[in-house]
Write a structure and sequence with these properties.
Blueprint (H helix, E strand, L loop, with lengths): L2 E5 L4 E7 L4 E8 L4 H16 L8 E5 L5 H18 L3 E4 L1 H9 L5 E8 L2 E9 L2 E2 L4 E3 L5 H4 L4 E2 L1 H5 L7 E2 L6 H13 L30
Helix pairs in contact: 1-2, 3-6
InterPro entries: ATPase_NBD, Gcp-like_dom, T6A_TsaB
Pfam families: TsaD (PF00814)
Keywords: Acyltransferase, Transferase
């Protein structure tokens, strides 16, 4: 097994290689505006670090969000392209699950990432491997009662300390955590989600209301 894992659902552009035993190379850079520019060089970098060629890959793991539309689709389209070009399967993993897995926590907690518009993407967990609720997008004040008293992880928790009283690292997901989680689940025979985006809301960009279609004469 040689899995290439990547995620662009948060400001982090993160890539890792997993050889079936553990992560053998990884790269993470935080830049919310340069996902498309940074992702392919990061893939080249981790392959070079591991001394491997892209043709050695046996599968692709991609974070499916939830996340903002523009950043999230960069990772998903890249994963799909690699999968098609190499003829290897592409597996989806919820980005929030990757953050949860990285904590190693054994008790209940919540993961929250920044959804912009003064909202967070979030879900509750029984432990680092077990999600209790579907990913959702809400204003922090609207979910205060549901997360009160729970440890919280992620950039969303750090942004809203009035709602998430005990925020912890990691701030962003790492592809290393996604790769380890995916490899663990695949080894256990767990079916991973399709690599389809969890947007949870419409994209920020909208067609103007008074937009006029111009047709050729």
């Amino acid at each position: 097994m040689l899995l290439l894992a990547l995620d662009t659902a948060t400001p982090a552009v993160t890539v890792a290689l997993h050889d079936g035993d553990d992560v053998i190379a990884s790269s993470s850079q935080v830049d919310a505006r340069r996902h498309g520019e940074l992702l392919l060089p990061a893939i080249d970098r981790v392959l070079a670090e591991a001394g491997l060629k892209v043709g050695a890959l046996t599968g692709i793991v991609v974070g499916i969000g939830p996340g903002p539309y523009t950043g999230l689709r960069v990772g998903l389209m890249t994963a799909d392209t690699f999968g098609l070009a190499l003829g290897v399967p592409v597996y989806g993993v919820c980005t929030l699950d990757g953050l949860a897995y990285a904590t190693g926590l054994e008790g209940p907690f919540v993961v929250a990432t920044d959804a912009r518009r003064k909202e967070v993407y979030w879900a509750r967990y029984a432990d680092s491997r077990t999600r209790l609720t579907d990913p959702a997008v809400d204003r922090p004040a609207d979910i205060a009662g549901q997360v009160a008293g729970l440890p919280a992880v992620g950039a969303g928790a750090l942004l809203y300390p009035d709602t998430f009283f005990t925020a912890h690292e990691p701030e962003y997901v790492s592809a290393a955590a996604l790769a380890r989680l995916a490899a663990e689940r695949l080894a256990a025979g767990v079916e991973l989600p399709a690599p389809r985006p969890l947007y949870l809301r419409r994209p920020d960009a909208q067609v103007p209301k008074n937009y006029k279609v111009v047709t050729p004469k």
